[in-house]
Each structure stands twice: as C-alpha cells, then as structure tokens.
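Morning!

As promised:
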Amino acid sequence: MLGKECKRKTAVRPNKQRVIQLYWSVESLHWMTVAFLLHLQYVQHHFVVNFGKPGIMMTGSIPRPHFKMARVISMSIPMFLHSNATSHKWAFGAIAELIDNAVDEIQNGATFVIVDKTLNPRDQSPALLIQDNGGGMDPEAIRRCMSFGFSDKKSKAAIGQYGNGFKTSTMRLGADVIVFSCHLGDRVMTQSIGLLSYTFLTQTGHDRIVVPMVDYELNTITGNMEISHRYDKEYFMSNLSMLLQWSPYSTEAELLKQFDDIGSHGTKVIIYNLWFSDDGNVELDFDTDPEDIRIGGDVKKVQAIPAWRSVNEQHIANRLHHSLRAYLSILYLKIPETFTIVLRGQFVEHRNLVLDLKFQEFIVYRPQTGGCKEAEVLTTIGFLKEAPHVTAHGFNVYHKNRLILPFWPVVSYSDSRGRGVVGVLEANFVEPTHNKQDFERTSLLQKLESRLKEMTWEYWDYHCGLIGYQVKKKLPPIEPPQDSQVSSP
Ligand SMILES: *[C@@H]1O[C@H](CO)[C@@H](O)[C@H](O)[C@H]1NC(C)=O
Ligand SMILES: CC(=O)N[C@H]1CO[C@H](CO)[C@@H](O)[C@@H]1O
C-alpha cells in the first residue's frame, strides 16, 4: 500500500524543480512544505469543526489532507522534500516517530516514555501527551527541534532525534503543539517552553513561521528558576504573552506547573486541537478502550470464513492497524529492560513476533551490497501459531531495531501457497523512507523482496503438510523442522 506512494515520487517535473530551486533556499522550501502541510490539515480541521454537525456534513466527502497533499506536492516541490512532506499518512506512524525520540534518549538515561490522553484546560478537549525522562533539551536544542531553518545533524545511532520528524509528526496529529523540556547541563539547569501553533499562525496572519519560546534557568544562589538571561527581557515578555494567549495555559504559573512532573530532566510534548476524521470525531479514539488509543475508520475487513473471523480479527497482524497498544508492543525488536513504554497508565508489554511462530526455521541471507563488508541477515520464518486459521502472512522487517514493515506481504496467495507463513528480520542494509513506514525502493530492496518470496514458497512447499495442507509436489525428503534448528539457506 505504501509502495504506490513511493512510485509516485518519480513524477517530479524537472523544469519546475529547477525554477523553484532558483528562488528558494533549502530551508525556506522545507518551511513551505511544512506550512503547506499545516494549511491543508487546518482547512480540513475547520471544515469539520464548522460543518461537522451530524446531518450537515456528508461523511466521507472530505478528502483526507495527507492524500491530497501527496498529490499536489509531487507536482511542485522538489523530490528531496517530497518524502519529508508526505510523511505520515498513518497517525500511529507519527506517534511512533515521537516514541523514537524518547527511545533515542535511553542513552541519556531515559527509563520511560508516557503516552496518554490529557485535557486542554481551555476547552476540555482531548490532547495527546508524550513524555520522557531523557536528557531533555537546552534552549539551543529546543530551538533546533521546533524552529525552521535549522539543519538537523543526526547522530548515526539515533532513530528519531528531535529533527524535522518532530515537526511533521506532531503536525500530522494536531494543529498545535507545546513542548516543555528540562535539561541539566554543565552546572546549569534550564527549563524551556516552545509553541508550534498553526492556530496562532493563521489567526494572526503570520506569513512566516514564528515559534514563541521562553527559557528559565536555575539560580544556584537562590535555588529558584528565573528568566534566562540568554535572550533579551523584552523578547521574553513578548514571547511569554504569545504563549499565554495561544497555549492551553493562560497564566505563567499554570505554564510552569507543567514542569512539576518532569523532574530535573526530560521532555513533555502536548499536541492539542487534534485532527478530526471523516466521521466528525477526533481521529484518535481515547474512549473505546480506556487503556489504549485507537483509530477507528481504518479497520481492515478480514477475509476469512465465519468460524475463523474472530481469531483473525484478534490477531496482532490486524490489531496493530487500529490499536496503538498492539502496534507499540512490536515497534522495537528489542527494548532494554530498564525502559518502559507506558500507554494510558499501563505498561506496554513487549512482544517478540518470533515467539508467535511454530515450526521455525532460520535462514541467512547475504545481500550483495557492493561494499567490502558483507551484510548478513538472519530471517526467522515459520507458521503463525494460529495457522491455518489465521490468514495473515508476510515479513516483519525491522531496521536498526525499529519496525518498518509489519507483515509485509511479499506473495499473494490466491491458492493458499504462503498462507500463515510469517518471518521476522532486521534489515539494516536497506534505507527506510522518511516516515519510517516503508523502505526506499532500491534494487537492494527488490532483491530482498524476491528472496523473501522464494523463502515463503520454499517453506510452504516443504512444510504445508504440517498445518494440514496437502503437499502437492514431489519433493526431495527433508527432515521436518523443529524449533531452534538452524538450517542452511
Ligand atoms: C521571541 O524571542 C526571540 C528570541 O528568543 C526573539 O528573536 C523574538 O523576536 C521574540 N518575539 C517577539 C514577538 O518578541
Ligand atoms: C529538510 C529535510 O529534512 N530534508 C530531508 C528530506 O528527505 C531527504 C531524503 O528523502 C533528505 O536527504 C533531506 O535531508
């Protein structure tokens, strides 16, 4: 499904691209892209808010802004920005990117990330909270994270790193985001607050993106947090007044109270004015399950005979699309024991998809990467424990510990060949796309895809008897696989 999206990328017109590059620098182009993204979502938001009363709005008639955006941008913005701008069709993909930022903070001491619903005190509307106790951001870092025109210097190890991913993913989820960050640096402790608010920017008619920010610093003599002297006092006051007017908090005391549960280091992100879905409800559903965040709408129809329908619907391959808890449970291949993801007050139990497989085999694949160092990828393949009842199949492909493709269906099995065959692998030799929901469609990926296809068929042809299918071909005799047995490729 994401493959199509990527193919469209090639449709950039070279002429336009050159003309635009003449007039705008890279930074302002990125700025434009995000502004554009904001604008379309804002239009949808207000359309639904103003006309979204039952009976007036025609359900399903509003184009989803991200689809629309993908089309428009592929015609006018150079390709190198395309993937950034079309980031995050899927709301959970945007949330995952914010969780990545917290996971990157494990190296700075983070032991948890909290994902929860909170309320906007101004109107009691639901807002999304994401909070970690990592290193936090000092005044420069929060500017890099929230402002435009900074280039992101990503360290190689980091998955997210408060880069542009932060802007695109927060803006995918809601119109406004406020960030509180507390950082303990060399002898100074700072608290910084920043507001990226589309509501503010449009209602005040700003023609460039202004991100109000204030910083406080611990006075080691008095022990109080005081206005940071880094920036002019006048600036501080005008920034603060914008924050109080447009953030959910209308007094400085209320604003600073948000630091109470952050402690001496960490970051709290609150996304408010969350987007609405076509049915006129907030897209993120906090109500159906008080211990989960769900997305309605997109529930996939499971094709199965009635007796098997429920086991299919309940399977993680299906649930991950609409239950954040299910998705987060498999988002990382491994997670340090010292770190927990807490979703709506409950730990997210980590799930190793390999343990969902029976009759496992381990297959080594050595991609020809062209480099002198030979990559080696170990794929665990097997039948889902619930096979043949569960029809899901495909490969869960991780990249540097992070799930990129869940249940990637490399074969289509109109004739059952491949049904219930699932694999798990970590493919670090291919590059994920910007939204980390797909891989760049390179020849390396194509080779991987065909190898996985062969693997699926080979596995099926040898072992389908084990789940009650008739082995069709005459095959050379082979020992039935046993758990933990290593077979050669
Ligand atoms: C907010 O503060 C920044 C410095 O941090 C300053 O450049 C900007 O002009 C201020 N905004 C206003 C409206 O004063
Ligand atoms: C500003 C920005 O993040 N640009 C990135 C967009 O995506 C391309 C790759 O698809 C990167 O190379 C750019 O740095």
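The two ends are 29 Å apart (CA to CA).

Hope this helps with the figure draft.
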